[in-house]
# Entry
Amino acid sequence: NAGTTVMNNVKLCSLAESLGAVETMITHPATMTHVDVPAKERHARGLSDGLVRISVGIEDPDDIIDDLKQALEKV
# Structure
């Protein structure tokens, strides 16, 4: 799905749940934080299987934008 494609193609973002760190992180709630929540319930809460969550860190904003653009182009 689109969320997995984006996660697999970012180069700058770390795939991780919130660690209290300062680097940009990306998560896929359907397979990480909400994996134990039934799909029907996730969808009712607005957590689609294609949803990704990005926590922006202190890297150069242009680097973050460029990384996300190149990953989204692969969807």
User: Anything to note?
Assistant: The longest helix spans residues 61-72. The chain is about 35% helix and 10% strand. The chain has one domain: 2-72.
